Amino acid sequence: MSSEIKNTLPQQQNVARQDVAQQIAKLREKIIYYDEQYYQENASEISDYAFDMLLKQLNSLEDQFPELRTPDSPTQRVGGTITKEFPTVYHDHPMLSLGNTYSQEELSEFDQRVAKAIPDHHYEYFCELKFDGVAISLLYENGILSRAATRGDGVRGDDITHNARTIRTIPLKVKGNDFPPRFEVRGEVFMPLSAFETLNQQREEAGESLLANPRNTASGTIKMQDSAVVAQRKLDCYVYALVGVHLPADTHEEAIHLLEKWGFNVSPTYRKCPDIQTVFDYVNDWEKRRLTLPLDTDGAVIKVNSHQQQRLLGNTAKSPRWAIAYKYKAMDAATVLEDIRYQVGRTGAITPVACLKPVPLAGTIVKRASLHNANEIARLDLRLGDTVFVEKGGEIIPKVTGVDLDKRPAHSQPVVYLDHCPACGTKLVRKEGEAHHFCPNVEGCPPQIKGRLEHFIQRRAMDIDSIGKETIAQLYQTGLVHNPADIYTLSYDDIHALEGFKDQSTKNMLAGIEASKQAAFENVLFALGIRYVGRTVAEKLAMHFEHIDDLMAASYDQLIEVPEIGERIARSVIQFFENEDNRKMIAQMKEAGLQFAIKKNASDQESTTLNGKTFVISGVFQQFSRDELKAKIKSNGGQVVSAVSGKLNYLLAGDKMGPAKRQKAESLGVTIITEQEFLNMLG
Ligand code: IVH
Predict the structure, then answer these.
(1) Which of 91, 98, 296 to mutate to test the pocket of ligand 1 (most atoms within 8 A of CB)?
(2) 130 is catalytic
(3) What is the pTM of this model?
(4) How many helices (H) and strands (E) does the chain have?
(5) What's the CATH fold of domain 602-681?
(6) Superfamily for the 3-69 domain
(7) Do the beta carbons of residue 350 and residue 437 sit within 8 Å?
(8) Mean pLDDT score, 654-660
(9) CA atoms lying within 13 Å on the CB side of residue 83
(10) CATH superfamily of 521-592
């Protein structure tokens, strides 16, 4: 709490608190409005920056008045809580699993069991898809999400409330007022296929190992210790059950409609079915259609609709007698492994690829499947000539899931993993803790060189769409381009001399290269292809350091100070900039006029009052948070640095600043100013 508030009389304190409470309520209302607009209608009336500022303002008020921070505040969505170990929680009602069937006969048998158990009843079914993710239980008390838990062993699970709050489609507060004081909602947390693909693409770009499938990724993510990382992972959640005593619904259908009304995310794929025949229609209908959905599903769930009948049917120890899962057969096929080829990525990582006897699978002909790395080949004990099973899940590339040992040819031998680079012949290395083998010939290995060039020109980097993959190959083969900076030395004659280039295409390419000089600093930083620096990390680094020179000069400690920059990224950045060839390349690019500093948005710039002035911010402040002060300094032309030195202009001192810092500033003759004096400087 700020000292100003502390030193006032109790009545005044209340007034101040009331004002703040009102301010907080207004901010929340605004943020929730923009948030809903963004996530549900894909529209926004304000800039991302303005939105972040609202959120920051709210966060800072909640920091000052922690008692006003409620669990339904939008600040709770961004995460930031680190959990070492998740507390164990007991479920109010056990989380059961479902009996499985794989055939329509078994489904008929289920229907007969139901008919027999409630002989005098007319009953209906409610069908849903079975979403492939991880089960979650959400507890609401007085309309506020008070606890979220994993299934665990069904009786007790992990309390993952902080992580669940970051999932935008899980309401922190229920809409309306016709809900019971305490109720539980069950659902499935999943990673949409598009989010999974983007995540893997980013990992690939950053030279990280790929995640196996959306289901495992969702289940790993929901149990991550850092909720800020969870917030970035774009998880989603479909709910499929309302649980509790005295529910205001007589049927599952009514419960689902209530959940929809209260603002929960219900997949619109359900259907009420009057009899088992209609259930067959439902499962048949969705067998193919489910592949067009934005998430993985592995079956359908058939539930007796009436709650009273559900109670009459009851449960076995493990699963309800009133529901069953109908599992679709995994889309798989058996075929012969003819060869294993090895690809070399831009980071030198070697990826083995299975070459298969072509086989039809889920509408396409499969000829290749990813094998990830040497461990995967050993795990499957793959041998050439083996009949293997390939499966197509959410991933675009099919995977080998197993071997049909009965069909193994006699005298087959385990695969001996490659030990020299297939492209340049250099001996491969495998560093401790790495799943991949690497070709260390960074400067001379053609696929690595071409890979870096392709990475550099791609849309999310320099966006030179007038250069294609084939042109890269030509530019490399003719010796015109070896590293990305060489692209900026190309002349009209160089390009015109290439095969297939006429006057107009040459001019187009030159224009594309010229235009790329305006690509933003974060694009350039990403384009450099520093290992582990994907698009998001590049943005974080660019925003924090603002200029390549500052980033290049940054120490390990300064790097890990940046939110979300860990040890591994920091080391990789340092290693990249230590390399003499990389430094030369950057100098060449600077010369060519590429952007190596962030461009300030004119509207974010308030004044030039602090131009050329440097500040260190230390301590706790009354009117603004440190982040806000930092933003103010920058938007008025000043610069924020971390260490007090003789060159420093101002030490902006708040409460609780360490005496050592003050002493150092005093001894170096640095001007020490208070928050108010700083604000006065800005007029
Ligand atoms: S109902 C008591 N409905 O499937 C029955 N479960 O073995 C509770 N699941 O891990 C489950 N989609 O998380 C139900 N539409 C759906 C579902 C669904 C996916 C998952 C559930 C659980 C497993 C059941």
Answers:
(1) 98
(2) yes
(3) 0.61
(4) 25, 20
(5) Rossmann fold (3.40.50)
(6) Helix hairpin bin (1.10.287.610)
(7) yes
(8) 81
(9) 21
(10) 5' to 3' exonuclease, C-terminal subdomain (1.10.150.20)
